[in-house]
Amino acid sequence: MQKSPRQCREEVERRAAELGLAPVGVAPVDGDVRAGEFRRWLMEGQHGDMAWMARDPERRTSPARVLPEARRVLAFGLNYYQPEPERRGRIAKYALGKDYHKVLLKKLKRICELLREEGGVNRPYVDTGPLLEKPIAALAGLGWQGKNTMLLNGEDGQWLFLGFILTSLPLPADEPVRDRCGSCTRCIDVCPTRAITAPYQLDARKCISYLTIEHKGPIPPAYRRLIGDHLYGCDDCLDVCPWNKWARRTREAAFSPRLYPDLRDMLALDEEAFHATFAGSPIRRLKRARWLRNVCVVLGNVGTAEDLPALRTAAGDPDPLIAEHAAWAIGEITARAAAR
Ligand code: B12
Ligand code: SF4
Ligand code: SF4
Fold first, then answer.
1. Of 177, 227, 213, 206, nearest to 328 (Cα)?
2. Distance 227 CA to ligand 3 centre (A)
3. Is 251 exposed, middle or buried, given 0-12, 13-18 or 19+ CB atoms closer than 10 A?
4. Is residue 148 within 6 Å of ligand 1 at its C-beta?
5. Which of 26, 225, 272, 324 gives the lowest tally of CB atoms within 10 Å of its CB?
């Protein structure tokens, strides 16, 4: 016998809890995602060279265009918090272990099985399709968008990956929750590159996460020192958020931090060794040249004379992206030594 929409929702929540997914919420498919703000962000070029963000904005702001049968969007969180290991060069917490897309998508597919048994037409997404995920999660009552634009939940804070299922089943929907940022501006104040240009607005071109992950070319010189020891991504505006103080350690073994060679040894990675070192990690997506570009920037900021021989070898790399950043790092380390 088919379950009522409420029973079906309860079943989804049970299965989600078994899979370690929390919180869970349901949004109507046609909720207000502030499409106008998104279009303005694109018009102003704030997406930088993430051209895929600008492809078909109509679809991205309207989930019903992605799956015409869809009546609801189910939203799920997956806690990924854990402290960073002590090492030279910081890797954002979301990328310490296995790529979350695969881990979360596998869980969502299990929930889709359940929805299919109830006659639903469903499609799961983990940053794998044209959805404005944070506004949708907010509509589903998972939390509110903080001033750093991240979805923020009163219990888990912001250390949540978000996953979604578009479904044709008319499950009971949730109400959005109240914004509780209040007069706090810590995330805005701490940002090293002033990327949060106003509350709830982020210029991706200035964000260290964008510069070290998404941006393909040379890091603009004006940002190199500001990047400090951020090797891959940035958590500064999350680390200071008072709502993140109570974060509990993730129970997802797949996210356990991986150990990597020191930055200096990393400079010797050839293409094959790079892929072997980062197999299964989101860092692999960067490819060798961009990774070594980042290694050079961090060494330029925190390196010592002992790093110079490895950097000199990198300065002779046939890839101009690596060679130029290595030369910059040599200049920075040498200038620091001379000033002492
Ligand atoms: C592009 C992208 C980036 C870009 C741009 C980030 C950004 N803020 O847009 C870059 C590379 C910089 C980035 C960085 C990070 N990202 Co990212 N990213 C995305 C992606 C693919 C799209 C985001 C997007 O649509 N941006 C467009 C902008 C315009 O949308 P928006 O930020 O929601 O903007 C809305 C608000 O500004 C709002 N607004 C305007 N005025 C007002 C006023 C009020 C009062 C309110 C409430 C809202 C509001 O309207 C806009 C449109 O709706 C999503 C996945 C997805 N498909 O959604 C992941 C995603 C947002 N990223 C994620 C993560 C984890 C990160 C990092 C923490 C990774 C890291 N440690 O380096 C950082 C965090 C940086 C930050 N402070 O945002 C998670 C966030 C999870 C969560 N709890 O929110 C997501 C959801 C991926 C996932 N599935 O888990 N990311
Ligand atoms: S992730 Fe870092 S650079 Fe980006 S907005 Fe937050 S503090 Fe600024
Ligand atoms: S640091 Fe303050 S303003 Fe920023 S998201 Fe957290 S509570 Fe909101």
1. 227
2. 21
3. exposed
4. yes
5. 272
CATH of domain 5-167: 3.40.109
Question: Rounded to two decimals, what is the model's pTM?
Answer: 0.97
Mean pLDDT across the stretch 96-103? Answer: 96
Q: State phi, psi for 298 to the nearest 5 degrees.
A: -65, -40
Query: Is 235 marked active-site?
Result: no
Per residue in 258-306, pLDDT (tens digit) is: 999 999 999 999 999 999 999 999 999 999 999 999 999 999 999 999 9
Report the C-alpha gap between 153 and 141 in whole angstroms. Answer: 9
> Which residue of the set 127, 229, 239, 319 is catalytic?
127
**Which of 84, 91, 202, when mutated, tests ligand 1's pocket best, judged by the most ligand atoms within 8 Å of its CB?**
202
Query: Do 229 and 90 touch, CB atoms closer than 8 A?
Result: yes
Ligand 3 touching residue 146 (CB < 6 A): yes
Q: What integer is the mean pLDDT of 227-239?
A: 98
Residues of the chain within CATH 3.40.109 domain(s) are 5-167
